[in-house]
Amino acid sequence: MTRPRQILEGTTYAVSRRCSERRFFLKPSYIVNQIFLYCLACAAKKYDILIHAFEVMANHYHLVLTDTKGNLPLFMQWLDSNIARALNAHYGRWEHFWDPGSYDPLILETPETVANKIVYGLANPVAAGLVKRSRQWSGVSSVGLGFGATMDIRRPEHFFRENGPLPDEVTLTLSPPPELAHLGHPELDALIAKKLFEEEDRLREELRSAGLTFAGKNAMRKLRHSDSPRTRAPRRQLNPRVACSDPERRVLILARLKTFEAEYRECYRQWRQGARDVIFPSGTYQLRVVHGAACRAPP
After folding, report:
1. How many helices (H) and strands (E) does the chain have?
2. Which of 75, 125, 139, 279 is deepest in the core (most CB within 10 A)?
3. pLDDT in tens, 148-179
């Protein structure tokens, strides 16, 4: 039995997903950028997801979002499956598009942690040694898009049917995170811009000290979508479930998750024995959505 995930309404997450074998299926191009933005906007609207930041690299992407209705698994399934089908059709390929073990949402619990994860994602092009400033990256990114701003995205002509169920145009809004809602949009924009500039400077100095240079924003054009990095993929690293700058609060959250898992496993044991009236802990997802299991109300 795999570890159960507690999916609670109103939770803010950092989410990333990596392409199969780290291949450059998401390398910037007009079609790739349009498909990703269109799918992201459609999925966010369909499942009531607030998008706070997005950054698409050549072989993975980063999102910071708030799941307002407890729909994160459905959102991710819809987003990833439609991007995969559309881009597989574009490339003329049929195999797996995503690394099956690369999706694991990270719960963000404090304003500082949310801001730091937004900056971490947006600074990825600099961290990868591609460009000196994130705004120079030609892939999909929310850098420079102020909170509260909207983007109207036309349905791509490629793959999506003209008379299909999806809209001709969809609007994507960059929403301020609930944890930082006490700041006005200009103040929040300035905070993220300042932290991003400082992080870019730190990463530039780190690369300079290592004797490395930046590849430049056009470097990806020379590579095929089927290529992958020459560096070895990191293995057997820690896989945290919670990011929290307050140690005491982090301990409490981990204790909550541990209690949830223990209660879930006991309820699941009873369920397997035929006790269909068992009440699962709040945040139980698959058994509630797919099999109609009863759950306690959220705290």
Report:
1. 7, 9
2. 125
3. 999 999 999 889 988 889 999 999 999 999 99
For the record, the structure tokens of 187 come out as 């103040």
pLDDT at 238: 65
| pTM exceeds 0.85, yes or no | yes
What's the length of the chain? 299
Domains of the chain: 11-245 (3.30.70.1290), 249-295 (no CATH)
Residue 76 near residue 70, CB atoms below 8 Å = no
Does the pLDDT value for residue 1 go beyond 60? no
Is 217 or 62 the better-scoring residue by pLDDT?
Answer: 62
Q: Compute the average pLDDT of residues 86-99.
A: 93
Token pair for residue 16? 């990333």
- Find all residues with CB under 8 Å of 177, minimum gap 6, and list them: 12, 50, 52, 64, 66, 111, 114, 118
59 CB contacts (<8 Å, ≥6 apart)? 18, 19, 22, 23, 24, 25, 26, 27, 228, 229
| Dihedral sign (CA 46, 48, 54, 60) | negative
Taking Cα atoms as reference points, which of 59, 57, 51, 69 lies closest to residue 13?
51
H helix or E strand, kind and range, residue 256: helix 247-272
Distance CA 158, CA 139 (A): 18
Amino acid at 39: C
**Sign of the CA dihedral with 8 first, then 14, 20, and 26 last:** positive
